[in-house]
Amino acid sequence: MLDNHQKNIATFIHLSTFSRFFIPFGNFIGPIILWSANKEKSEFIDTHGKQAINFQISVFLYAVILGTLTIPFFVFKIFNGIDFIDFHGFESFHINIGKPSPLLYIGGALGVLAVIGFIIELALIVVASLKARDGQVYKYPFTINFLK
């Protein structure tokens, strides 16, 4: 039988991922500290801790992949008109703000996808916290299980 203390710790493990807004890498540090200090006390806490950490690692991995796809589109657009072989300083350098290229549209669409992913991540963390508060086990979608 789960007591309120176990439910509260599991809830705080999920909510501690929001500490990234105040502490660099707080979304990893908070859950790891809470999980490692309490994982032997309950299977429920152990399960929620692993889920929260796996989800944060997965989100970080997805963000790195999305960033590596997005950044080159903007770089190619910015340096499109510069000839690096015959570069004579900035005397002939100009930025053309005319017609946007398809690369910019693709990069912008990937940026919008990143914002939508961020909003979904926040919603999933809140849902996991509420499930932990109610004493239910929650499995994040799209999560790679690094810790089993």
UniProtKB/TrEMBL annotation:
Q: Which domain of life is it from?
A: Bacteria
Q: Which UniProt keywords apply?
A: Membrane, Transmembrane, Transmembrane helix
* Major location category of this protein: membrane
As for subcellular location, the record says: Membrane
In the UniProt record, does the keyword Membrane occur? yes
**Membrane-spanning ranges:** 21-38, 59-82, 102-130
Query: How is the protein disposed in the membrane?
Result: Multi-pass membrane protein
Task: Write the protein's name.
Answer: DUF4870 domain-containing protein
Q: Which organism is it from?
A: Algibacter agarivorans
Q: Which lineage do the record's taxonomy fields give for this organism?
A: Bacteria, Pseudomonadati, Bacteroidota, Flavobacteriia, Flavobacteriales
